[in-house]
Amino acid sequence: MAPIQNSAVVFAEIPSGYPEVGKHIKYVKDRTIDLDTVDIQGGIVTKNLVISIDPYMRGRMRSAEKKSYSAPFELNQPLANFFVGKVVKTDNSKFNIGQYVYGFGNYEEYTIHIKAQADLLRILRDEELQLGLSLTTWVGAAGMPGQTAYHGFYHIGEPKKDETIFITGASGAVGQIVGQLAKREGLKVIGSAGSDDKVKWLQTELNFDHAFNYKTSDVKAELAKFDPLNIYFDNVGGDQLEAALDAAANYARFIECGMISQYNQADSHGIRNLMNIVGKRLKLQGFIILDKARDASFQQEFYSKVPKWIANGELKIKEDVTKGLEKAPEALVGIFQGKNFGKAVIQIADD
User: Fold this and answer.
1) Kind and range of the H or E run holding 106
2) Deepest of 7, 149, 240, 277, by most Cβ within 10 A of its Cβ?
3) For the segment 62-108, what is each residue's pLDDT rounded down to a tens digit?
4) Chosen domain end from 275, 290, 305
5) Is 190 helix (H, G, I), strand (E, B) or coil?
């Protein structure tokens, strides 16, 4: 077989603010792969079908000298994130051609996973595939974002019936799941989002007790309408974190998941009311869901419950799927501007 095209989205330059399409992130199609001759070193080759877009990717667009919890993207190499692909070549007894796998893959049509990388991939079992979920859902609500919501809410939030929770970024990949888990457990659920249509969806489709557009509302005034907060699930940081600190009840739990409002701001101000942490005896805990990737107990707990809840309709999901790898740069930049409505995913290819 002759070499075939293996187009990709590459990290071309380190941004100082918002990444720009064609400057910092580029789609390139003059790449090839020869599936007959490629050396896979005891690993596999996948045809990549869907790949996730997530806010944390902005933090990987940095110089190698800056340390963080995740490795920086390599310049002039494909971006990487959670994906689902189909095995098209294998030199590893664990994998068979035709199997679907989930884990880290690249923003490209085909990816070589050497043995050490292949061993970290999760094979989607037949009984899971029989649930009928879209492959995009396996990188969303049934993947890393769903795990983030589940672990943060249950294991850090420690929810109790009739408590009040405030979720920022509530219509996003994580927030929409947190809100539904909270309703499931009998909490009063407040959410903020960045557009009126997102707010309407939270109230009419997900049955949030209250939702508001943080761009056009006074966040502190909105929170003052309700009992003090027992749980705050933070996806955005910034001014809404300040408002939540003022609105918190004594002993409230703050689940610090992300701070997307700060990712592209070079001159953002600090939080100015941190004394509330002391006076109200608050618990603030950050977490990185990748820490749970090799936690067999957590993985079993999550996969035995959440995919089934999605399949039977107990959890509703909204996805923002962009078709075509060539459109990925615009979609990736768009999440930092609030253009996505629901979990952002790239569909690279049909099965």
Assistant:
1) strand 100-106
2) 149
3) 999 999 999 999 999 999 999 999 999 999 999 999 999 999 999 99
4) 290
5) strand
The closest alpha carbon to 347, from 47, 105, 50, belongs to 50
228 and 129 assigned to the same domain: no
Q: Say what the pLDDT of residue 263 is.
A: 65
Burial of 37 (0-12, 13-18, 19+ CB in 10 A): exposed
Domain of residue 70 covers 4-139+318-347
**CA separation, residue 346 to residues 16, 256, 260, 313, 332 (Å):** 25, 26, 20, 23, 9
Element (H, E) at 211: strand 210-213
Which are the contacts of 342, defined by CB distance < 8 A and separation ≥ 6? 171, 172, 173, 176, 317, 318, 319, 320
Based on the fold, state whether residues 124 and 156 are members of the same structural domain: no
pLDDT tens digits along 309-328 = 999 999 999 999 999 999 99
Q: Are 30 and 151 in a shared domain?
A: no
Q: What is the CATH number of the domain that holds 94?
A: 3.90.180.10
Work out the pLDDT band at 118, boundaries 50, 70, 90. Answer: very high
Three-class SS state of 48: strand
pLDDT at 264: 65
Q: Which amino acid is at 215?
A: K
For residues 149 and 285, membership in a common domain is answered with yes
What is the CATH number for 188? Answer: 3.40.50.720
Q: pLDDT grade, residue 289 (50/70/90)? A: very high
Number of domains making up the chain: 2
